[in-house]
Amino acid sequence: MPPLALRGLVTKVGVMNKTATVVVSRWAVHKLTGKRMERTKKYLTHDEENKLRKDDLVVIRNCPPVSKLKRFKLETVLRSPETERALRAQEQPKAPEPRQSPEPQQSPEPQQ
């Protein structure tokens, strides 16, 4: 099989060890109507380090069979919402405490 790299979205992870399900979408044109249709296909992907999370955008590449249904391995993680959320939380500066206005100084009244 020639080298094939596909870009897809992780939909299922954690059920099987070192395996994730990646959905790859493509557009096809209907022969009669000429309308565009979205076609999707699921691929079982080998994830050696178990680092994938749900909703990650990844690139997978074909490889020799790892198991009966696994024919792709993880190449790169393009975008991960979980790690982006963690990075944003670290980057946000803590809100400064509201400044208290200085109390007006009262001059002491002369005693008689």
Can you describe what's shown?
The protein has a 5-stranded mixed β-barrel with strand order 1-2-3-5-4. The model has no long low-confidence stretch (mean pLDDT 88). 10% of the residues lie in helices and 40% in strands. It starts with a strand and ends in a 21-residue tail after the last helix. The radius of gyration is 28 Å and the shape is elongated. The chain has 1 helix and 5 strands; from the N terminus they run E-E-E-E-E-H. The protein has a domain at 5-82: Nucleic acid-binding proteins (OB fold (Dihydrolipoamide Acetyltransferase, E2P), Beta Barrel), CATH 2.40.50. It has 112 residues and is mostly beta strands.
Helices and strands in order, then pairings?
Layout (H helix, E strand, L loop, with lengths): L4 E9 L5 E11 L6 E11 L10 E6 L9 E8 L1 H11 L21
Parallel strand pairs: 3-5
Antiparallel strand pairs: 1-2, 1-4, 2-3, 4-5
In short, what is this structure?
With 112 residues, the protein is mainly beta. Helices cover 10% and strands 40% of the residues.
